[in-house]
Amino acid sequence: MAGPDRACVVFDEQLTSYDFGASHPMAPVRVDLTMRLARDLGVFDHLPVVGAAPATEDELALVHTPSYIERVQKLSAHPEYSDVPHGLGTEDNPVFARMHEASALIAGASVEAARRVWTGEVDRAVNVSGGLHHAMPGRASGFCIYNDVALAIRWLLDHGAERVAYVDVDAHHGDGVQAMFWDDPRVLTISVHEGPQTLFPGTGYATETGGEGAEGTAVNVPLPPGTSDAGWLRAFHAVVPQVLREFGPDILVTQHGCDSHMDDPLTNLMLSIDGQRASYLVLRDLAEELCGGKWVATGGGGYAVMDVVPRAWAHLLAIVSGHPLSPDTPVPDRWRVHVGDLAGLAAPLRMTDGRQPGYRAWEQGFDPASWLDRSINAARQAVFPLVGIDPTY
């Protein structure tokens, strides 16, 4: 396991300036509360905090069009305007002052996390403010202005990585990252998400498997609404480890949107903190098994900003540090008082929802009457033959 000098979190107070306004679900207080909770839990005793510089225009242009970057910059200086063709000024993506600067800093933080891992300064690095996976080359989408995870992957490719695997466990499909590497066989994108029939962005069908020359490098596992820990973990373990092992990545990049939680107001999945924590542990183990421990983790969605996001991501930070927290760990009184003062709410007492996440392995049988099992089977049938895996069990 990585010790105090083998992992880091990239953070700067300015990362909380990515702020669409008081009524927007993407509240930056969730990042602040996460970092406060991790500090009060002693996570940073094992996880140094390092800073980052904003991504430059030239760096952003590796994944975004120059015309789009220019529009973001202009609207940042004049937030009274909008530009719907670029997805800016909408209800999802309202323009705010210094939007470019805030978004570029998040992108730079993910690049810094990737740089530190790839150069061997650390084994693992995390940027919880990152994971803005919906942004497209020339368009904002789904609360995402610049696609920091795609930029981090591009940086890795440009600095010698030959095979990068990206795993996205957000409730929403990781459409922007998939689109940017659709034709690139060096990048494997895997997304486990609520199905497109019931949730934005309406993509992520199992049949989306990659472009010409990159067949099998886009993997999608769409899940029925109402899927809870057992079903989610069954789906994950039935698809993700097998494809990752066949691909053989040099480094693992992950997105940990925790909007899959049962209390999230924007989605229809039913995971617990305990199920989400289980997914972080298995991704850590896969990085250890396949990449010599090289793991770059980011945040993502998550809109139950007081009760869920800070606890989920504090677990992620602790796992990245090499010192996971027990689910039964009490939530520190200092943090609970802060939440009470801030929002007038009674904060959770423990770092658990009291669940014991388990699942039935795919090898134990396929139930064609189950929407979940049909979805899992569709993903296996679509991708496994393309990468040389027998989809039968």
UniProtKB/TrEMBL annotation:
Keywords assigned: Acetoin catabolism, Hydrolase
> Domain of life, per the record?
Bacteria
Q: Which GO terms describe its biological process?
A: acetoin catabolic process; epigenetic regulation of gene expression
Q: Write down the Pfam families for this protein, in alphabetical order.
A: Hist_deacetyl
Annotated Histone deacetylase domain ranges read: 24-318
Q: What pathway or pathways are given for this protein in its record? A: Ketone degradation; acetoin degradation
Q: Which GO terms describe its molecular function?
A: histone deacetylase activity; hydrolase activity
Give the similarity note: Belongs to the histone deacetylase family.
PANTHER family recorded: HISTONE DEACETYLASE HDAC1, HISTONE DEACETYLASE HDAC1-RELATED
Q: What is this protein called in UniProt?
A: Acetoin utilization protein AcuC
Q: Give the organism the record lists.
A: Aeromicrobium marinum DSM 15272
